[in-house]
Task: inverse folding
């Protein structure tokens, strides 16, 4: 008689770099492994739905290729020759080499380099505690969020908006610059509720006909980087046709008369020439949102990852203000709820002993930094030692040729704490095996919703895997800073402290309560969420005329760095500006590197289910362009520009517009036939005004191989 194994259902939280931050129900089997992973039906945002890649997480956490033991390089860099070491021996070596680098060229020559491989507040951000205690170089985070956050906050004054669950109460949901069918499935959950229960219209705006546009009632496919032109035309029509809420504008905006005058020359015909949309498409969209008071603008990150990114986000957010959509339940503009949480992370990050004189290095410019670019180094010493956690820069960062050259330096000592032997780990001197989220304790906040969520340890990690927190603590002890505030505590003690001490002064529920509940909801009330009493500036007015040089942003460049990119060219009012990397005779196409459904940046590249779903690296090219080039479906092509060349297969498609190329997903460099991944072609130039990498703004040529 076969007896079914005992299964416990335990709560967890998805840690991956996605605004959905899903609440999970995880099957924990009697043998200490996990079974099925489901979205929690009890959580009102997750609502029982998660993406397919996390649903099959057992593939990843129990993958046979996981790193299990510390490894020390014994051959030349990148040759794959390793010697197993104990944790003590590996950590002793790391401390010795970090101290040698500091003695030779100063503490700033050591750079702890991290990002969002986990969104856990303790396991991700504790690296700063070690950084500040040792006066190592700071990191200015630029790869992902800055243009979007800056554009939104320049208008509203605060990174927060309507309750995203209100999408289900809208009569029109505008999904702009994000592909949630592939990347934020919960957005579609609530949008489809609105369509089913209220007859709402779903509009999707993007640069190619992706899976979200296929599910929308109205799909607008425009040229990359031209979103602000569409937004201006929509506002032009609102003023022209009497849909602008003049009473709201007069009370809650800085210069509505100036905006209306500015938009006189920026109607649908003007925008059509810029965006590639027809006049009829623009008029239909403007009429729909103008007549639909409950319009919820769900604004993503994708349309801001170009040189017009901050301007585009600000312009799209401005539409909700012109229409007065903020006044209505199910209306307004939402991007991210980062400012509602009020966490005081000073104990975790060691901010009390941060020295403002220590330089900050631009995360996106790591290739320039490691190859000795004086400007990128902020005039300081070379980086001679790296500690890399939660990121895979040899795959994900722009200007990959420089990145790989930098990591290959013989005089660079690199430590990588990882779950798999990534392409960054392959170029390390020491590789440390890392736990995954079900194998350690952490706490999370949802940028795409409003929940503080616990991610407790559910199972033991395999082999000698250790969490990030262990590495911080052990290095601190060896480097002589373990006596400083914040060190010497367990990860659970740091979680408890975070819940006790919030920036707003209120005390959240206790760790023990959170263990039982799994999460708690901190969404502000309707009036605050919708800016009913005014926007988050001293005068309460939305800024149609942002101060691009000095205005607010959640992640402004440190004072010594100042504004970034061509900020002096940013417009006074919402407008399209000629900052894009325009195509030319030698590079007639514009390339965007959009997310794939089964990958998340470089995560899930190793899981069989994701690899099978994605197939191989391909470039989407319009049939008309393919015919002109003599490229057949499946043909091998080279994409090139001044930064390098990438070889991959063509997929002839009607999804992109002519002149636009789309490469979905971030495949490993080695998956491409010439060993050069798509970020070989992308630039590390700074997006104005506060930085960011223009990953969807790349001019290239195409040739058949």
Result:
């Amino acid at each position: 008689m076969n007896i079914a194994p005992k299964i416990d259902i335990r709560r967890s939280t998805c840690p991956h770099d996605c605004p959905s931050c899903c609440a999970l129900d995880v099957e924990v089997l009697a043998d200490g492994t996990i079974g099925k992973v489901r979205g929690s039906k009890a959580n009102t945002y997750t609502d029982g739905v998660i993406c397919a890649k996390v649903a099959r997480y057992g593939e990843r956490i129990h993958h046979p290729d996981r790193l299990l033991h510390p490894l020390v390089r014994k051959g030349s860099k990148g040759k794959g020759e390793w010697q197993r070491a104990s944790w003590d021996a590996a950590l002793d070596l790391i401390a010795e080499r970090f101290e040698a680098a500091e003695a030779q060229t100063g503490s700033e020559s050591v750079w702890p380099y991290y990002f969002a491989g986990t969104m856990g507040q303790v396991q991700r951000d504790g690296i700063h505690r070690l950084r500040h205690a040792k006066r190592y170089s700071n990191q200015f985070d630029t790869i992902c969020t800055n243009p979007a956050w800056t554009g939104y906050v320049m208008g509203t004054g605060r990174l927060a908006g309507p309750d995203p669950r209100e999408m289900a109460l809208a009569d029109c949901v505008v999904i702009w610059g994000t592909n949630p069918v592939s990347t934020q499935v919960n957005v579609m959950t609530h949008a489809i509720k609105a369509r089913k229960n209220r007859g709402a219209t779903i509009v999707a705006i993007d640069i190619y006909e992706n899976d979200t546009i296929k599910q929308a009632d109205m799909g607008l496919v425009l040229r990359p980087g031209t979103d602000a032109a569409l937004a201006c035309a929509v506002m032009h029509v609102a003023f022209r046709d009497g849909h602008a809420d003049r009473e709201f504008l007069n009370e809650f905006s800085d210069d509505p008369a100036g905006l209306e005058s500015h938009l006189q020359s920026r109607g649908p015909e003007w925008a059509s020439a810029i965006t590639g949309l027809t006049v009829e498409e623009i008029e239909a969209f403007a009429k729909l949102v103008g007549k639909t008071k409950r319009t919820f603008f769900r604004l993503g990150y994708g349309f801001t990852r170009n040189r017009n990114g901050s301007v585009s986000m600000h312009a799209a957010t401005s539409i909700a203000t012109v229409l007065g959509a903020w006044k209505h339940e199910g209306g307004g503009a939402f991007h991210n709820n980062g400012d509602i949480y009020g966490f005081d992370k000073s104990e975790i990050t060691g901010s009390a002993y941060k020295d403002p004189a220590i330089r900050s290095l631009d995360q996106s410019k790591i290739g320039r930094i490691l190859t000795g670019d004086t400007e990128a180094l902020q005039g300081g010493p070379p980086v001679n030692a790296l500690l890399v956690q939660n990121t895979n820069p040899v795959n994900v960062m722009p200007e990959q040729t420089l990145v790989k050259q930098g990591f290959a330096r013989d005089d660079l000592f690199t430590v990588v704490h990882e779950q798999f032997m990534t392409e960054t780990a392959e170029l390390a001197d020491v590789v440390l095996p890392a736990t995954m989220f079900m194998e350690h304790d952490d706490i999370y906040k949802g940028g795409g919703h409003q929940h503080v969520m616990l991610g407790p340890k559910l199972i033991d990690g395999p082999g000698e895997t250790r969490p990030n927190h262990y590495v911080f603590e052990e290095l601190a002890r060896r480097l002589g800073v373990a006596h400083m505030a914040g060190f010497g505590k367990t990860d659970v003690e740091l979680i408890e402290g975070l819940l006790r001490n919030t920036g707003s002064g209120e005390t959240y529920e206790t760790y023990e309560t959170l263990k039982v509940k799994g999460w708690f909801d901190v969404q502000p009330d309707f009036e605050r969420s919708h800016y009913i009493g005014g926007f988050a500036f001293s005068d309460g007015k939305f800024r149609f005329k942002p101060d691009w040089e000095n205005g607010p942003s959640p992640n402004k460049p440190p004072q010594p760095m100042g504004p970034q990119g061509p900020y002096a060219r940013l417009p006074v009012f919402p407008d399209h500006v000629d900052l894009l990397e325009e195509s030319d005779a030698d590079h007639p196409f514009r390339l965007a590197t959009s997310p794939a459904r089964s990958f998340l940046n470089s995560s899930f590249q190793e899981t069989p289910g994701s690899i099978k779903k994605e197939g191989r690296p391909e470039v989407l090219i319009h049939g008309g362009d393919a015919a002109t080039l003599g490229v057949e479906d499946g043909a091998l092509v080279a994409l090139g520009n001044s930064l390098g060349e990438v070889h991959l297969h063509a997929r002839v498609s009607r999804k992109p517009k002519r002149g636009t190329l789309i490469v979905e997903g971030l495949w490993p460099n080695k998956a491409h036939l010439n060993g050069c991944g798509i970020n070989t072609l992308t630039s590390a130039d700074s997006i104005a005004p506060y930085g960011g990498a223009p990953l969807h703004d790349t001019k290239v040529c195409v040739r058949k191989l």
